[in-house]
Design a protein that fits this description.
single chain; about 200 residues; alpha/beta; globular
Length: about 200
C-alpha cells in the first residue's frame, strides 16, 4: 500500500508511524526501548487483526541470538499479546526465524507459501525481511496487498518505491540517543533507564 496516511504513536522521543495503514493511537506509551518494540509489534498485529486476518505469519529475527539482541523476542511478545487480547491463539507454525536480510525474507515467505494453509498476512520484523517476502510473493503471482497483506519495520528508503506498508523508526534519533547515552556513561554520569 503506497498511501501516506499515518497515525503517530509517540513513545518517549521516538515516533513510530505506520504508513499506508490505520493504527489506533494509544497516546504516550512506556518509554523503555524494550516496551517500544513490544508495543510496535502489538499495534501492527492488531492492525492486521482489525483487517480480518487470523492467519498472520511472522518472519522474526534469530531466537537464539548469542549476542542478546532482544528486539525479535520483544516483537514476538507484542505479536502474541495482540492475539491474546483479541481472544485468539496465534499459530506457532507460522513463525519463521532468520537473520534480518532480504534473502532470508524470500526463503521464509516461500516456506510459508508452500503450506496448504498459508497465511493471509505476514508481519516481517524488518523491511529487509519484508522485501524478500514481497518478491517471493510476486514471483508466485501473489498480489500484495490484494492477495496478501505484508508489513515491515524500519521505513527503509526503498519501502515507498515497492509500496511496502512499514513502520517508521527514526534511526537518526535512535543513534543520537545512543550517542548521548554513551557520552554520559563515559563521563561518569548516571544514566536513567528511561529518557524523556
Amino acid at each position: 500500500n503506497g498511501s501516506e496516511s499515518a497515525v503517530q504513536i509517540r513513545a518517549s522521543a521516538i515516533a513510530v508511524r505506520l504508513r499506508a495503514g490505520k493504527v489506533l493511537e494509544k497516546g504516550n506509551a512506556a518509554r523503555k526501548a524494550e516496551h517500544l518494540h513490544r508495543h510496535l509489534a502489538e499495534e501492527v498485529t492488531q492492525h492486521l487483526l482489525d483487517l480480518g486476518h487470523r492467519r498472520i505469519g511472522m518472519i522474526n529475527g534469530q531466537a537464539d541470538d548469542v549476542l542478546g539482541f532482544v528486539v525479535p523476542h520483544k516483537r514476538q511478545q507484542g505479536y502474541e499479546l495482540a492475539f491474546s487480547e483479541a481472544g485468539l491463539i496465534p499459530d506457532p507454525t507460522l513463525y519463521v526465524p532468520g537473520y534480518f536480510t532480504i534473502e532470508v525474507g524470500y526463503q521464509a515467505r516461500n516456506s510459508l507459501l508452500d503450506r496448504t494453509d498459508s497465511p493471509t498476512a505476514v508481519f516481517s520484523f524488518s523491511d529487509e525481511l519484508a522485501f524478500g517476502a514481497l518478491w517471493a510473493a510476486r514471483d508466485r503471482g501473489i498480489s500484495v496487498p490484494d492477495d496478501l497483506s505484508l508489513v515491515g519495520v524500519d521505513d527503509h528508503d526503498v519501502s515507498g518505491l515497492v509500496q511496502l506498508t512499514t513502520v517508521h523508526q527514526d534511526v537518526a534519533e535512535h543513534g543520537a540517543r545512543a550517542a548521548r547515552t554513551m557520552i554520559d556513561l563515559l563521563a561518569g554520569t548516571e544514566v536513567p533507564l528511561e529518557r524523556q
